[in-house]
Design goal:
The complex is a heterodimer of chains A (157) and B (708). Chain A is mainly β and 157 residues long. Chain A contains no helices and eleven strands. In chain B, the strands form ten sheets. In chain B, strands 18, 20, 22, 24, 25, 26, 30, 32 and 33 form a nine-stranded mixed beta sheet that branches. Chain B has a seven-stranded antiparallel beta sheet with strand order 4-16-15-14-13-12-5. The chains are: A mainly beta (157), B alpha+beta (708).
């Protein structure tokens, strides 16, 4: 299961709070010998409103497969996140979790099931995420995006 | 200052650069530039090159580095091309050297290899993911600056780069769009020869047809050179020195503006290769040249010429040497030519034969130069501590198949001789020959430069048969070891197809064995002795005049001539015989070289005493009528007396030769025993040629009634 939780801040006085759940479409079935399938989904979060960005990647059977989420900006507007358009990848490769920041050319493997991206690292033009599954067999993934909005903020001057 | 330089007229710019090229220059290895390393990674590569261009005009550098083509493991023919490089070459910091094929190249992961990623488990088609190889402490200089990288980013499509998803500065095995299939494809990393790192895409597929797998490989070397392989097709790249793009060690227009020409297009391309060493009168060398100016070039031309050493070589258009090439030769655009170099006269100094390919495109010029040296064999030297001359080398003239004749006695042919007594000791068990060796060395002129085809050594002949061993000891040296048999051994060598150079080792054989002939003669003498004893009174037997008549006059008691065998001929120079008297030759007796006079002494002593002549009178006749005897003469005489009294011929002679050997003359001691039986005995007393035949004692002939 992939779960993306975004917390956004509301300006001024807001009353109440709400949570919205978006179920992303399942990955299409694989067709051998091409072992890789993918799908692109729009990101509802945006840099203007994001306070924190968390990504949870749950994989039921990690041993012989890889599932990754690539995030970036679909600059050519073709609805597909190309490799050159990708800024961040979070994945689980045969049980090894990792996060690759292509902007900084860094790889981190000391991550848990949930990865939190600070606001300052959230790409201001990010608008597309690509989920990639490699390998055969049922992995049992589920992709859920949950957007939560803060209750209210009181500003007194 | 750089900007001011660029404003100068192009001709002036070229002149200033040319002036800088006259001074000695320092070439700095990629990745080891002290300026760059001291300051850390330098991101402003282009700016630094511009600054360095100005610096070159101010300060000379010393050339220390030459470009060498890396050798592929097989099927490669390295060609040093000096090519003006492209922007792509600059961005990755390497230029293509050559291309080759190796149909037998294997891509299976070796035992010391490790998987890269998990594509072998789950496959992959895109290059998203943990696509970085960490080499640990191993580094690879890559890119337009001198930076070294301890990790590189890989893609599924067989590329490596310093940054992910790079579009330039990419090492690519030219795979195109491929992907990995689980349990079929794998990526692996392994160390290679010479501290290389090998990255392999093994059994990847290009379409849905998994039977048609392909493999790709990138071999990284610590100096920044690398190879890319796409199945059997390979390319070798050399690291570009950012301060010397064309690798000629000279700052010139091509270094200042490596991708530019006066026409503002990609630069001049050409190649010139000449065999660096050509043997005089040997195999032909190769001279090739090509010229490929830019497609949009205007006035482009190239000229191939022989700039020096025209008196040392002949340039042919083909290997059959029927038509000489005409140089200078103008090359058309896109033309390649091949000629063949024959060495006619030895070079005075290394590289005194030089070729040049002068190329120009719209006023910009580039000259490629190659030098050759015509080498010849000056000498073959032989040395052996146990030889006649000790450690003094014996010289044989180069490129001559020097012959050796056994019968050249007065003017012997050049040879190295090893006397038997220098290597042999005699014990109760017979002769023991110690190990010894003859070392041989080829001396080349003007220097020990070798052509690609190398040196051949061989045993030219071994007479009567080979003994010991012969083998090359180095490229220009060989050794003949531990022969145990006398004879004539000829060895020869040639370099790069040159004429043979031969030398001879002589272990001088003594005359043939007299064992059988002497035993037969003793039997004859025995019969004669009996007749004398029965025919003469005791007083007559002791008269010296009788002794003279029976055993002295007209060679009645002497073996004469050179004992020899057609199967193993003795060496005349070391086994001389008096042409008039037939005296002086050395034969082999019970395995020991013995002067024939000792056999004569033995025979006369034995026969006389067997006939009943008082030994004191017989001995006195030798004193008064013969020559003063030496110790061996006394030994041989006494041995004949011993046999006359008792004992067996074999035992008496065995004891005699062992006793004589330590006190023999040097002539006998230097000769090697010849165990072949004598086969040149004659009965023609008046017709005998003592050089080719030997005569038994006259009384033996008379006793056999065979005197002629």
């Amino acid at each position: 299961m992939i779960k993306i939780t975004t917390t956004m801040a509301a300006a001024g006085l807001a009353i109440g709070g709400f949570a919205a759940t978006t179920v992303w479409p399942s990955l299409p079935g694989g067709s051998l010998p091409d072992p890789e399938v993918s799908t692109n989904v729009s990101l509802h979060a945006s840099a203007k409103t994001v306070k924190s960005f968390s990504l949870t990647l749950s994989v039921a059977n990690p041993a012989a497969c890889e599932v990754l989420v690539a995030i970036g900006c679909d600059s050519d507007g073709d609805g597909n996140l190309d490799e050159t358009e990708t800024d961040l990848v979070v994945g689980c490769d045969c049980g090894t979790r990792y996060m690759v920041d292509y902007r900084r050319r860094s790889i981190t493997t000391r991550i848990g099931e949930t990865v939190t991206i600070p606001r300052r690292d959230f790409g201001k033009d990010w608008n597309l995420a690509k989920i990639v599954k490699r390998g055969s067999g049922e992995i049992g993934e589920q992709i859920v995006e949950t957007v939560e909005t803060m209750g209210f903020t009181i500003s007194i001057r | 200052m750089f900007e001011k330089f660029k404003t100068l007229p192009r001709l002036t710019q070229a002149a200033l650069v040319a002036l800088a090229s006259v001074a000695t220059v320092n070439a700095q290895k990629p990745g080891t530039n002290q300026q760059r390393n001291a300051a850390g990674p330098d991101e402003s590569g282009l700016a630094r090159r511009q600054i360095d261009a100005v610096r070159r005009l101010d300060a000379p550098r010393i050339v220390e580095r030459t470009v060498k083509a890396p050798l592929l493991r097989s099927g490669s023919a390295p060609v040093e091309d000096v090519v003006i490089i492209s922007e792509e070459d600059i961005s990755r910091g390497a230029r293509l050297l050559y291309e080759t094929n190796d149909a037998s190249r294997a891509y299976a992961m070796p035992p010391n290899g490790c998987h890269i990623g998990c594509v072998h488990v789950h496959g992959a088609h895109s290059s998203l993911g943990m696509n970085r190889i960490d080499f640990g402490s191993w580094t690879f200089p890559f890119g337009p600056t001198g930076d070294s990288h301890s990790n590189l980013w890989w893609t599924i499509d067989a590329t490596l780069s310093a940054t992910p998803f790079a579009t330039n500065a990419v090492l690519s095995a030219e795979s195109g769009d491929i992907y990995a299939v689980p349990n079929l494809s794998r990526m692996w990393l392994a160390p290679g020869d010479g501290d290389e790192r090998i990255v392999t895409w093994e059994n990847f597929v290009r379409t849905a047809d998994t039977n048609a797998t392909e493999s790709f490989q990138i071999v990284l070397k610590t100096n920044g050179d690398y190879e890319t392989w796409s199945n059997e097709y390979g390319r070798a790249y050399a690291r570009i020195d950012p301060d010397d793009y064309d690798g000629d060690g000279i700052p010139n227009w091509q270094d200042y503006s490596p991708t530019n020409s006066a026409a503002g297009v990609a630069g001049i391309s050409g190649s010139l290769q000449a065999s660096p060493v050509v043997m005089r009168r040997g195999d032909l060398g190769i001279l090739t040249a090509s010229f490929e100016p830019p497609a949009s070039a205007g006035n482009a031309m190239a000229t191939l010429s022989l700039t020096s050493g025209g008196d040392r070589v002949a340039i042919w258009t083909s290997t059959n040497r029927t038509e000489l090439a005409v140089l200078p030769r103008t090359l058309s655009q896109g033309e390649s030519v091949s000629f063949f170099i024959e060495g006619t006269n030895t070079s005075q100094i290394v590289g005194d034969v030089s070729f040049a390919l002068d190329m120009s495109v719209d006023g910009d010029s580039l000259t490629l130069s190659r030098a050759s040296t015509v080498v010849s064999v000056s000498w073959l030297t032989m040395t052996c501590p146990q030889s006649e001359g000790g450690m003094r080398p014996v010289l044989f003239p180069g490129e001559e198949d020097s012959a050796y004749s056994i019968t050249n006695s007065l003017s012997p042919d050049q040879h190295l001789a090893v006397p038997f007594c220098n290597v042999a000791t005699l014990s109760s068990n017979g002769f023991q020959v110690a190990d010894f060796s003859v070392e041989m060395q080829l001396v080349l002129s003007p220097a020990d430069l070798l052509p690609a085809s190398g040196v051949e050594w061989e045993v030219a002949s071994a007479y009567p048969s080979m003994s010991g061993s012969f083998s090359p000891a180095g490229i220009l040296s060989a050794v003949f070891e531990n022969p145990r048999q006398g004879g004539v051994y000829r060895f020869r060598a040639r370099v790069g197809g040159s004429p043979w150079t031969a030398g001879t080792v002589v272990l001088p054989l003594a005359g043939a064995s007299m064992d059988a002939d002497f035993a037969a003669d003793i039997s004859t003498a025995d019969g004669m002795a009996q007749q004398i004893e029965e025919s003469f009174r005791i007083t007559e037997l002791s008269r010296p005049e009788q002794g003279k008549a029976w055993f002295y006059y007209n060679g009645m008691g002497d073996y004469r001539g050179r004992v020899d065998s057609s199967a193993a001929r003795t060496i005349w120079q070391y086994n001389q015989v008096n042409d008039d008297t037939g005296f002086g030759a050395v034969a082999t007796w019970h395995g020991v070289p013995v002067r024939m006079a000792k056999l004569s002494n033995f025979m006369v002593s034995y026969t006389a005493l067997r006939a009943g002549v008082d030994w004191r009178y017989a001995w006195a006749s030798t004193i008064f009528e013969g020559t003063l005897d030496d110790e061996t003469a006394e030994l041989s005489w006494n041995a004949g007396r011993t046999l006359a009294q008792s004992g067996s011929l074999s035992n008496v002679v065995e004891t005699l030769v062992h006793d004589m050997w330590p006190v023999s003359h040097q002539k006998e001691r230097r000769l090697w025993p010849n165990l072949e039986p004598a086969d040149n005995r004659t009965n023609e007393v008046w017709e005998a040629d003592y050089n080719f035949q030997y005569l038994p004692p006259g009384f033996i002939l008379k006793a056999n009634n065979t005197e002629n």
